[in-house]
Amino acid sequence: MSFDAETASSETVIIHVGEALDFRNADDFKATFQEHVDEGIRQFILDFSDTEVLDSTGLGSIFSLYRAVSPDDGKVAFADVSEPVQVVVQLTRTYKVFRQFPSVEAAREAFAG
Prior knowledge:
Layout: E1 4-7, E2 12-16, E3 20-21, H1 26-38, E4 43-47, E5 53-54, H2 56-69, E6 75-79, H3 83-92, E7 99-101, H4 104-112
Parallel strand pairs: 2-4, 3-5, 4-6, 6-7
Antiparallel strand pairs: 1-2
Helix pairs in contact: 1-2
């Protein structure tokens, strides 16, 4: 499974996570974001609108992205977080690390401003 990545600006990419980010596709997620990191992208918006499953492996891959961009003042934001993902975010207190936005558009505006 590959992830749909959309270029929002010269500095920002939106990754549509899709149905699941878990042990089955975490490596694909890493490959997707790594291509963009290698191109100099440092701001990522993760669209969780359709996501039903986020496990510890998936969460670990998101932290890999964070570690890749944060030394260069990069940002990773969660957008349109589905209920199942929100449960994981609350249990793991991930909200302390990643900003959350009600929509992809709201995250895009925050990054642009």
